[in-house]
Amino acid sequence: MNQSLLPRYQQIKHFILDKIECGEWPESRKVPSENELCQQFSVSRMTARKALQELTASGVLMRQQGLGTFVAPLKPQSSMLAVKNIADEIKERGHGYSNRILRLSAENASEAVAVSLELPESATVFHSIIVHCENGLPLQWEERHINPRLAPDYLKQDFSRETPNVYLNRVAALTEATHVVEAVLPSREMAEALVMDATAPCLRITRRSWCRHGVVSLAKLIHPGDRYRLGDHLQFS
């Protein structure tokens, strides 16, 4: 797409992302201030601020009070508090998203899965495993068990076009979620799929999601520890 047709704040974002992608602006380099961007792109301060805020929220930049805005460490960052779609996170960083679907089936629930989904032991559940990639490099192993009653058409979906997160929010109207974050070692299958050393640590997020009718999903999201981080900005009243 011709970048001149984009909104002005998007043009600023693309300019900054291009500088980082080509290596001209390395990690920890200070980026132009709002005032400097205003002059360079002939935009209002609000427009420049919007571009910097969105890149900071997606983990591309980091702001230090009184010092300015800098290029963040080149490791994808996700919010600890918000439940985001990984495809959107990757695209917000200006990178290409793709995935590989390793499993999509119906099976009997294990005791642990049945308890988590509040179902009888050995009840039928849907099971999916998808590897999400950023610029072709595996970033997340997503293993998900679904209550079929609350998402009956789950196995019919084309998850190469729409992630499970987006689909479940659309059909089940998710209302709440809990998640636990811990460091783990990957299984051999995970390590091979994520193209990593099986002795290297991973970050695992275990998330249960509800709609008003009950527990919809139990997801385990595995990330190579050297490719991912969690962070957020908290504001206190």
Topology of this protein?
Layout: H1 8-21, H2 34-41, H3 45-57, E1 61-64, E2 68-71, E3 77-79, H4 86-92, E4 97-108, H5 111-116, E5 124-134, E6 137-146, H6 164-172, E7 176-184, H7 188-194, E8 202-211, E9 214-224, E10 229-231
Parallel strand pairs: 3-10
Antiparallel strand pairs: 1-2, 4-5, 5-6, 6-9, 7-8, 8-9
Keywords:
237 residues; alpha+beta; Arc Repressor Mutant, subunit A; Chorismate lyase; six-stranded antiparallel sheet; two-stranded antiparallel ribbon; 7 helices; 32% strand
Strand order of the largest sheet: 4-5-6-9-8-7
Please state roughly what percent of the residues sit in beta strands, choosing from under 5%, 5-15%, 15-25%, 25-35%, 35-45% or over 45%: 25-35%
Q: Which CATH first-tier class of the largest domain would you pick? A: Alpha Beta
In total, the number of strands is: 10
Largest sheet: 6 strands, antiparallel
Tell me which CATH architecture of the largest domain applies here.
Answer: 3-Layer(aba) Sandwich
| H and E string | HHHEEEHEHEEHEHEEE
CATH superfamily of the largest domain: Chorismate lyase-like
Number of helical stretches of at least 4 residues: 7
**pLDDT under 50 segments (min length 5)?**
none
User: Would you tell me which CATH topology of the largest domain applies?
Assistant: Chorismate lyase
Q: Helicity level, as a percent range?
A: 25-40%
Question: How would you classify the helix and strand content by structural class?
Answer: alpha+beta
Oligomer: single chain
**Mean pLDDT, nearest integer?**
88
Q: What's the alpha carbon Rg, rounded to whole Å?
A: 20 Å
